Each structure stands twice: as structure tokens, then as C-alpha cells.
Amino acid sequence: MTDSVHNVRVQIPYHLRNLARVEGEFALSVEGPVTIRSVLDALEQRYPMLCGTIREHDTLKRRAFLRFFACEEDLSHQSPDEELPEAVASGKEPFLIIGAIAGGCD
Fold it and tell me: What are the Cα distances from residue 88, in Å, to 42, 76, 84, 101?
């Protein structure tokens, strides 16, 4: 995917949906290659109140308790500049930002 505009479906955790005042899944326009970075840049541009909630302000690294998924695959440790699957770029599958659950045995 190169120099065109893509409508990418996005799902974010409940508390971030409340902050952004969106309900359920929504679409974002992403220009150029569809990567984690380009999706998050578009998300933060459209919903500036989310800046710093998904990525650290200074390093732009993913926050520890959030995970990125697409096409049933955990992309959390993938390079933010690696292109996402075609199914995400074409809008067939959503890009998911999910709150990770930490814990153990009682």
C-alpha cells in the first residue's frame, strides 16, 4: 500500500472510546502505507485527547498494558513502520488496540 488514502477500521478499549467520545468500531483515513505508526498518527490527529494514552509522549513507544492486533495476530512487538496486512489496509479486518491483562494465581 503506497500513496493512496485507506479507510482503516479501528477498535480501541472502552476507556479510550469514552475519552474520544466514540462508540464501537470506527474508520480512520490513513494516507500512504498503512503501518502501526500511520494508524496511530491518524488516530491521534483525529482524536488529540488520545495523545499519550496509547504511546508515550516523548518516545512514541507503545504503553506497557496495551497490545496491537490485526488478523488474529499480536503485532505489539512488530516495528511500527512495518506495513500492516492487506486485509487491514483494505478495511476488511480491523486494527485492534486492546488493554492487556496482567495477573497471576491467587
Answer: 14, 15, 6, 24
Q: Which domain holds residue 10?
A: 5-99
| Segment 36-56, tens digit of pLDDT | 999 999 999 999 999 999 999
Q: Is residue 49 part of a domain?
A: yes
Torsion on CA atoms 45, 51, 54, 59, rounded to nearest 10: 100
Q: In the chain, how many H helices and how many E strands?
A: 3, 5
Residue in the block written with cell 516495528: 79
Q: Is residue 16 part of a domain?
A: yes
CATH code at position 39:
3.10.20.30
